[in-house]
Write a structure and sequence with these properties.
Butyryl-CoA Dehydrogenase, subunit A, domain 2, disordered C terminus, alpha+beta, homodimer, 10% strand, Butyryl-CoA Dehydrogenase, subunit A, domain 3, 25 helices
């Protein structure tokens, strides 16, 4: 792809304002507009621009700087915005169906504006809506238009107050009564109340509720989902037998009303069962048409991706907040919002440490099968295929003669393959050793998490990311002017990530001698350095690759991914780089900045009198 | 010290409530009351109890659960509480003077209740008050009783909007005018406004202001501090020429009113100069009586302690918040408050990374002096004395034959001494290499921070903590029943901390072979394990030391350091361990939990109509 012509991009990617950042932008080795076009494509850029502009142009989405929002007002505003987003149909249903990635773009754009809004929208439309579409059948299709035009509003109720990540332990029950062809939904006690359910606190009229299904005679068929009306859409008052409320303020995401519900023998029709994987006949017989076979590789990847991504983001945001010093701690600059709104990603929809067990379990299972003489080690997406060479990889050793040689992601990629094999062997040994001591398999697995299975899962995911990144930047379609910067980024991510595992690389013998570890560190520093004058010790001066490094590209790279100023809404982060001017403007717009305190008279009222101090001092 | 008799401790350390934690408490290897008495001493326990009880008994300190505080109300409440604390004289002036540690106890107790209150109190009484006492002279003593009875309220104004940790770059000026015997205090522009000053936003009547002192003829004598009245104590209105305001909401600590001020040629008397280190005669001659020689070792230790402590706390709080899952994310449980109120410790009073340079600079300077043939390497507190054996230590190698041998803090202590020597050598080499490339000393030092000087400073501080902990738990005065648990804690901290540096231990050759690194990990796991039945692989079963490990002591250890329930104010953290019951009680006390939303009518109002969806679905 050639560098974009002015006509193509002028409206999609307008020039950035001048100011103090201009000098830094001028140092970039590439054109930021070309990279944005290459990464996103024109269609996505257009979609993003249309969403961002729709938000900026609508007063309902005006930023409420200078006003404190009460919890009630915050929730009202987020609800109204969610309604407006659905009403404006920012993305047409046909486009969603044709290109599911566009839904992700919509959610991400809404989230970049405000993650409460994105969550509320996502929980209603996708989590609730898709649960009905995917887990229900023909008889549930009538609900979909009602979801789209918000005749009903949904939530997804799995978690209970004392059971989060452990879905099997859920205690809400649904007993089938053939006499009336109804299920009787019941919460046995307060600990089994549904809790933390997003949208349930104040707005949801319907819930997909997970409960243990019982047929007459008392047989339990395990966890199933039911579509349950919890409020009257006309009045928003609870339905009889449903105690539903709001769990209160959270560390962030306070536009979303997380709620709780207890069901007191609530009768729902037989058809309320979302019967994709199992159904109950009118007479009360449980029938299951087929087993839903999961994509195990995708499950393993997803279960590791969320921990890796949420922890990396949390660490990165905290680093940025500290790097901005006090100004990063000022609420108006919104690094606190970013941190508090990413934080729950570490625990919801499965605690990170619990999820990582899914990933390591998958890898351990594959190896066990193979060692028992199973088929060739391979998977649909190919992420585990390298394990076929497991014993050979373990014999490999680090062989990079110079720092300059380490500036390519192929070096850390090879190290990662060894690392995953090493951790796999260590994990297998540990689990077996634990099992031999006579404890249960569950306990043996638990005792093998720290330093073994948990590290294995993370390293496997990092390898997958490093490999995907490496392949992406080496594909022939990358425009030549963008190759150098993308390859440097790929190498930096890979080396920085790998460097967290240097201890294991030494311990297992992949690294030996002082130079191996130093080279990785020096390569990281070289990649972060300024390009010219090039004086980084230990690296050849004249190779083209190292003549310009990432420090010079930093501002332009941010330009590629940064949302518009209105969306980012951070005075110190505006594109013009005039951080102090913008900070002052923002501070002076807050309420009562220069006014004396309303309670000023308290200052001199009834002065304290400490016993005759003067004499003593 | 014998185990405390019932009479001694019944009132100071009442029994804890029964409940689900009782079974865990019964497993402890020691008596929690005995440890509390040993750690704190009876006097401190009594002081803490009197402070905590005073807060709990006074309705002004009632917890405001279920009510959202506006910024204005939060600040008013914190001010009133601060006034009450001073008025109640929880600690007598004589006691503060006799035992300065008691002041720390008071601040810590107030902070455990609410760090906004502690900060407000600390900034006024100690930071502002001590600045006048220490930097002023006889002529300023008249202010001290006014501070104690709050006739005036103080703040400490160093930071400017564009200069935080770099105090030398401050641009506020104080020109002396001999005609009127006044200084003219001036802020040249908005970037030089004082900013972030705690208590300045709404309450301070006086400020200690740092400015560049100029005498007639234009000579600058550097940074000096001046006592400046910024508001009228009767009206809290600003003094003429002072623009003073509130910088707005922060990520936490919102009971403290951080503020800004610009001075427009404000005239203050000559005597307002805090003249301990330099004065100006009525005619305008600058005179300096002596140089304030700083305790360099203490400075180096303090500059490294704050980073180590604040980062460790931040990491620990985040770990606890995640370990509590969603409930840790619920505001009422207050892990968010802990995190947000610790967060600024990472950057204020000197950014952590900047401060660490003070510590590494001290060590590099000492070594340079020694290598130039200077005197023996030693310091008043002895923290660097081991460096005298620098070359010999570098020749040492890890020599611990078994995991059981690693369960003592002497093993990591020896490794730390090697590590600091290694990082010192690496840092010196790096700085010299940078200097040889022809850049300035400042740049050379900057370029040597990552992986070298920064790691050195942290490792040195960790070594100091590990050594202090080790010596503390091995002193003969430790009651025999407490020895085992304290030594295990010391070993766990040391090994856990050291384990972050395993890569360097291998790289520099202190560790070799697979076993060294594994032993450290296994020792950490063994120390965290449950005592009985003892089945941790690789560790002898019958030694007394390992027969009971820290998992069994965990709850009792928390009992030793935990503040009373009222002070902690966290439903999931109450001493009775009834977390779900307490959580429900708290959630149901919040405002409008079960009421429908006040904006319920918006739900059905003007329904959105997405174009004829039904046909398509």
């Amino acid at each position: 792809m050639a560098a974009p012509s002015e006509g193509d991009t002028a409206s999609l990617l307008p020039d950035l304002p001048g100011g103090p950042l201009q000098a830094y932008r001028a140092r970039a080795s590439f054109c930021w507009k070309e990279l944005a076009l290459f990464l996103e494509g024109e269609d996505m850029l257009r979609l993003k621009k249309s969403i961002f502009s729709a938000l900026e142009d609508d007063p309902l989405f005006a930023r409420s700087r200078g006003h404190e929002l009460s919890l009630e007002k915050h929730r009202e505003l987020t609800f109204l915005r969610c309604k407006r987003v659905l009403g404006r149909a920012l993305l047409r249903v046909e486009d969603m169906v044709q290109n599911p990635l566009s839904v992700l773009t919509l959610i991400t754009c809404l989230g970049t504006y405000d993650w409460s809004l994105a969550q509320k929208f996502l929980l209603h439309l996708l989590v609730f809506g898709l649960a009905i579409y995917k887990s229900g059948s023909e008889r549930h299709l009538e609900y979909l238009p009602k979801i789209l035009n918000m005749e009903i509003f949904g939530c997804f109720a799995v978690t209970e107050v004392s059971h989060g990540s452990n879905a099997k332990a859920i205690r809400t029950t649904a007993h089938y009564d053939p006499a009336t062809e109804e299920f009787i939904l019941h919460s046995p006690d307060f600990e089994a109340a549904k809790f933390w359910v997003g949208n349930m606190g104040k707005t949801a009229t319907h819930a997909v509720v997970f409960a243990q299904l019982y047929t007459p005679g008392g047989r339990c068929h395990g966890l199933h989902s039911f579509l349950v009306q919890i409020r009257n859409p006309k009045t928003l008052l609870p339905m009889p037998g449903v105690m539903v409320g709001d769990i209160g303020k959270k560390l962030g995401l306070n536009g979303v009303d997380n709620g709780f519900a207890m069901f007191h023998k609530v009768r729902i029709p037989r058809q309320a069962l979302l019967n994709q994987t199992g159904d109950v006949t009118p007479e009360g017989t449980y029938v299951t048409p087929f087993k839903a076979e999961l994509g195990r590789e995708i499950h393993a990847l997803v279960s590791g991706s969320k921990p890796l991504a949420s922890w990396t983001a949390q660490r990165g945001i905290q680093e940025c907040r500290e790097a901005c010093g006090g100004h990063g701690y000022l609420a108006v600059n919104r690094l606190g919002d970013l941190r508090n709104e990413n934080d729950p990603n570490c625990t919801y929809e499965g605690d990170n440490n619990v999820l990582l067990q899914q990933t390591s379990g998958y890898l351990l299972g594959l190896l066990e099968l193979r060692l028992q003489g199973g088929a060739r080690l391979e998977s649909p997406l190919g992420t585990v295929d390298f394990l076929e060479a497991y014993p050979d990889i373990l014999d490999q050793r680090f062989s990079c003669p110079s720092v300059a040689g380490c500036l390519e992601s192929s070096v850390p990629l090879a190290a990662y393959e060894w690392l995953v094999c090493y951790l796999l062997r260590e994990s297998v040994q540990k689990v077996n050793q634990e099992k031999r001591s006579g404890i249960s398999d569950f306990e043996a697995r638990n005792n093998s998490q720290v330093y073994r299975c948990r590290s294995l899962a993370l390293a496997f995911l990092e390898l997958t990311v490093v490999r995907t990144f490496h392949e992406y930047v080496h594909q022939p379609s990358v425009p030549p002017p963008l190759r150098a910067v993308l390859r440097r980024l790929s190498a930096l991510y890979a080396l920085w990530s790998l460097n967290q595992h240097t201890a294991l690389l030494y311990r297992g013998g992949y690294f030996s001698g002082e130079q191996a570890g130093k080279m990785i560190e020096d390569a990281i520093l070289a990649l972060c350095a300024q390009g010219s004058p090039w004086r980084f010790a230990g690296v050849a001066r004249h190779t083209d690759f190292v003549s310009q490094q990432l420090k010079d590209d930093a501002v332009a790279l941010v330009d590629v991914i940064a949302p518009p100023d209105f969306i980012l809404d951070s005075p110190i982060g505006r594109a013009d780089g005039e951080l102090y001017k913008n900070l002052w403007t923002a501070v002076l717009q807050e309420g009562q900045v220069l006014e004396r305190a309303s309670w000023w008279a308290e200052f001199s009222a009834s002065k304290t009198h400490v016993e005759s101090l003067k004499s003593r001092l």
